[in-house]
Design brief:
heterotrimer; A mainly alpha (about 150); B alpha/beta (about 325); C mainly alpha (about 500); A: about 150 residues; mainly alpha; 2 domains; two-stranded antiparallel sheet; 5 helices; flat; B: alpha/beta; D-Maltodextrin-Binding Protein, domain 2
């Protein structure tokens, strides 16, 4: 999962897309007048500005093509995001202890060097730390053990 | 020591899991509050929880579920099991949220009230450099100076704001609403006169009135509230039966069995006589408001009917 | 004045109040260090317990949590690039860079010393000028606040050391994301698309944890450093005397900026750290080193932060105006105690007012004693191999985000911003301006609309008010100052070609 793109071009496209998105989505809300601005006035203005800046960057990116290329390595990030999603799905019913263990084990793959004993120890340590510090000491109302 | 106290609270909170109704209540009751700690609803709810614990004979465990002007908590209550073990204290937001927002997660018919809790009147205060001393003078000034009047409130859809939207058309004055996130934030602009007046809770305005930094010119209940008896009401001066108050109600999911609702109402009415509760309400300029279950639900229906056209006419919320 | 302080110390130095102050600063430090769990959550959890305490003790403890968290907040920013609060975002810029260069110790040390310095001086200011300073806040009308926010956003552009165009675009995007949620003027729900989790807007903590914490982990891992440690070598544990001397000016300026902005209830305190950093970067000799691990880039914002935290008590205590959610909760605590925050607190309850002021000074002493010995311990943490450390960072981010309200949705928000932060970082767009704009966006819109509501749509108000005009002129000058070197650089590049 490696993507190579010019930094200006990439950033420009990102801003252009976000700006256009906000400007168009703002049309769902009343725009109003300066004296009585509707909920859409400010977001639309901001969206247009961001889109314009994005367009400028795209133009600049085309002029100096691939002079400052960035390489996006999405592998580790994808694993981290997967780990977080699993954590969020497990935590409410499965309890925070199990969710932390899953989070640690899955995200360890992002590091690329799998040493099973070490990962297991880290997972147990962090789960215990979470339960003691966050639940016992700080009193956060979290479910610790699985509900089933 | 604190951590220990915290722990016990948490344990009690987690203890509430499932219930079998023998003689209600046979286990702790969870009281959900729609706002974060520190506000009027939170304060009322906690004071009520202490009094109810005595009169209901069960521990009342308070839980804040703030978000979206109380809509998060009300949605949670609407979807919960109607067994009387999960109830809430809410304000006018219960009625206003579904009127203002398209995608609120509950309908007003999905909640039922067990009785009103308290009510606090609204006070109209004006800047010291604004040459108006009575409600009549305010209307005269507004008519003589069209499109000059600004008024502050604690936010869109709050009781003081809705009251103001009802008041201005009736007296034939046009005024621009300047909403603030909480009435406290409005006072710098009221003190300087940028915004000439505010529709405020008594609790919020009291320190500024006491310090002679703003002038109270009217209150909005039918009876003059304690502590402001020398200030006329709108009801007696300009608009008979004008009655706006910041109320709170004890509510739960629709379908709560009648015996449980009756038991809760009985305990609530008894709790409202608790001297500690009365004293607590006084601190925020409120008064206990005792009703039957039916009266309370009629009040909710009446509020819904009263505000629906106004919310539409004033263009509030998603529209 | 001496009498008042004597009264205050009389209140604050009782065994009970000293204990509450200590509990407050200890808890504050703890939650400051743990990312995600900020002072707002802590105060919310503890608030009900304070109802049974005397008002002085309750407020002394809550205040301790608040400024204690400002001390602790810098720790994770420096060590692992995780800011738990808006005010510690700036500290990541140079602080974390210092940690990577093996200078985490001096960074943490100067943060503690700077916080102490700023806290003490600002407390003195509160004691000397509180009644008079309270009136300053009243001079700011909505138009002035809007112009101040403009100034803040231009300052945000100064933070970045890359492309100016990208920084401006990041500011715009931050404004846009900050607008998600209910519109305060009409109550309309914006950009929520029927998603319940967005009904109150995007949370700061999940956004910041995603952009800084998780994205940074992904960025580090891709460079295959999993077996190495984060800092290649740890040279000093303490800031040297030369470091201290180097930072003295920054700390004095930071205190000034922080104290002044802390007075403004409508978002001023938020700007303190950003403004102090921007000012340093503009006045310093050799400004090139900012962003590369310059110790002044840690000293200035940390000092400003704490100075602002102390002076923000002035509008709260004397006008009843909260400058942030924690303060709003403290106002709630006062009301529950039957004290109406406002102009009369100082005359009606002098013991309470001066007791809090005195306790702030005592609390600052406690904090520096508590924090300096911890520096050695924190630095040791950096010797843990990164392959063991990064799962810990991920766990803390996840717990911090999830725990506040058992909120699953916020974990997804964090994952989204992790992706956004990573892509932005790779494309040379720095996150700090985005984050500042995210926080200021809703405030800025609010003031803009309020000013125009009152003026009936006349944009002239922004130049009619002297304070507002002043900030607009300052913003314009700053913008020129930023643009000029960029233009010059481009010309140099063009010449070389």
């Amino acid at each position: 999962m490696r993507i190579r793109i010019d930094r200006d071009l990439g950033a420009g496209l990102l801003f252009l897309a976000c700006g256009v998105f906000f400007a168009i989505a703002a049309r769902d809300y009343r725009i109003g007048t300066p004296a009585r601005m509707g909920p859409g006035y400010f977001p639309q203005a901001v969206g247009i500005i961001v889109a314009t800046l994005g367009a400028l960057l795209v133009a600049r990116g085309f002029v100096h093509r691939l002079r400052e290329a960035a390489t996006l390595e999405l592998g580790p990030l994808a694993i981290l995001i997967l780990a977080l999603v699993l954590f969020a799905l497990v935590a409410p019913d499965g309890g925070i202890a199990l969710a932390v263990v899953i989070l640690v084990v899955v995200s360890a793959f992002a590091g690329g060097t799998a040493r099973w004993r070490e990962i297991a120890a880290t997972a147990v340590f962090l789960a215990a730390f979470t339960v003691v510090v966050f639940v016992s000491m700080l009193g956060l109302p979290l479910r610790v053990w699985p509900a089933w | 020591m604190f951590l220990k106290m915290l722990l016990t609270t948490v344990c009690v909170a987690l203890g509430v899991t499932s219930a079998h109704a023998q003689a209600y209540p046979n286990q702790p009751v969870r009281l959900v509050l729609g706002y974060a700690p520190g506000g009027v609803v939170d304060f009322t709810g906690r004071a009520l929880a202490q009094a109810l614990t005595k009169t209901l004979g069960q521990q009342i465990v308070v839980e804040n579920r703030p978000g979206a002007a109380g809509a998060v908590a009300t949605t949670f209550i609407a979807k919960t099991r109607p067994d009387g073990y999960t109830i809430m204290v809410m304000d006018v937001g219960t009625v206003i949220n579904p009127l203002m927002r398209k995608d609120v997660g509950y309908k007003i018919g999905e909640v039922t009230s067990f009785g009103m809790v308290a009510s606090a009147p609204v006070v109209i205060v004006v800047s010291n450099n604004f040459p108006v001393r009575t409600p009549q003078e305010l209307v005269a000034w507004g008519k003589a100076n069209p499109d000059k009047l600004n008024f502050a409130t604690a936010g869109v859809g709050t009781a003081p704001h809705l009251g103001a939207e009802q008041f201005w058309p009736h007296v034939g004055v046009k005024a621009v609403h300047v909403p603030y996130p909480g009435i406290g934030a409005a006072f710098p602009d009221v003190l300087s006169g940028k915004v000439q007046l505010a529709f405020s809770s008594i609790a919020g305005a009291r320190p500024f009135i006491a310090d002679n930094r703003v002038r109270a010119i009217a209150t909005t209940s039918l009876k003059r509230p304690a502590g402001l008896t020398d200030i006329p009401t709108i009801h007696e001066t300009l608009m008979p039966n004008f009655n706006i108050d910041i109320w709170t109600t004890l509510a739960g999911p629709a379908g709560t069995p009648a015996p449980i609702a009756a038991r809760l109402n009985e305990a609530l009415v008894a709790a409202q006589k608790d001297p500690e509760f009365v004293a607590a309400m006084e601190k925020i300029g409120a008064e206990a408001w005792s009703t039957s279950v039916k009266e309370a639900n009629d009040i909710l229906l009446a509020e819904d009917k009263k505000w629906a056209p106004l919310v539409r006419a004033a263009g509030l919320g998603d529209q | 004045m001496i009498d008042n302080l004597a009264l205050g110390f009389g209140v604050a130095l009782t065994i009970a109040n000293l204990s509450y102050c200590f509990i407050g600063v200890l808890l504050g430090t703890l939650v400051g260090v743990l990312p995600g769990i900020g002072p707002v959550t802590t105060v919310a959890v503890l608030l009900p317990l304070t109802f049974s305490l005397p008002p002085e003790s309750a407020l002394i403890m809550l205040a301790g949590i608040y400024y204690g968290a400002q001390y602790g907040g810098s720790t994770t920013s420096i060590l692992v690039n995780m800011p738990g609060e808006a005010s510690s975002v700036v500290t990541t810029i140079d602080g974390h860079r210092m940690a990577r260069l093996g200078r985490a110790g001096p960074a943490l040390g100067i943060a503690a010393v700077g916080s102490f310095f700023g806290g003490c001086v600002a407390t003195l200011l509160v004691a000397l000028f509180a009644p008079w300073l309270a009136e300053v806040a009243l001079k700011f009308d909505p138009a002035s606040y809007f112009s101040l926010m403009c100034f803040g956003l231009v300052g945000a552009i100064v933070l970045a050391h890359g492309s100016v165009l990208k920084s401006i675009a990041m500011v715009g995007l931050g404004l846009a994301f900050g607008l998600v949620g209910p519109d305060i003027n009409t109550g309309a729900l914006r950009f929520a698309f029927g998603v319940d989790g967005l009904a109150d807007g995007i949370g700061f903590v999940p956004m910041a944890m995603g952009i800084f914490g998780i994205a940074e982990v992904a960025y580090n891992l891709e460079r295959r450093r999993a077996d190495s440690t984060l800092a290649t070598r740890v040279t000093h544990v303490w800031p040297s005397l030369a470091d201290m001397r180097h930072c003295l000016g920054s700390m004095i300026r930071g205190t000034g900026v922080g104290s002044a902005l802390g007075l403004l209830p409508g978002g001023g305190a938020l700007l303190a750290a950003f403004a102090a950093y921007a000012l340093e970067k503009k006045v310093a000799r050799k400004p090139r080193r900012f962003g590369e691990g310059d110790i002044r880039g840690v000293a200035a914002p940390e000092t400003a932060n704490n100075a602002g935290a102390q002076t923000s008590f002035i509008p709260m205590l004397t006008l009843g105006l909260p400058s942030n959610p924690t303060m709003a909760m403290m106002i709630g605590a006062m009301m529950i105690q039957g004290i109406a925050p406002g102009p009369r607190v100082m005359t009606d309850r002098p013991g309470l007012f001066w007791g809090i002021v005195a306790s702030m000074w005592i609390g600052n002493v406690m904090l520096v004693i508590l924090n300096l010995p911890l520096v050695g311990l924190w630095v040791k943490l950096l010797k843990i191999p990164y392959r063991l450390m990064f799962p810990g960072i991920v766990v803390f981010c996840a717990i911090g985000v999830y725990a506040v309200g058992n909120n699953v949705f916020d974990v997804f928000v964090m994952a989204f911003f992790a992706l956004f932060g990573y892509v932005a970082l790779k494309l040379g767009c720095e996150p700090a301006p985005f984050v500042l704009a995210f926080v200021l966006g809703p405030l800025m819109e609010q003031y803009l609309r309020r000013a125009l509501l009152i003026s009936r749509g006349d944009f002239g108000v922004f130049v009619a008010e002297p304070i507002s005009l002043g900030f607009l002129i300052a913003s314009a000058l700053l913008l020129v100052a930023i643009a000029a070197p960029a233009v010059r650089k481009k010309r140099d590049v063009a010449m070389q070609e």
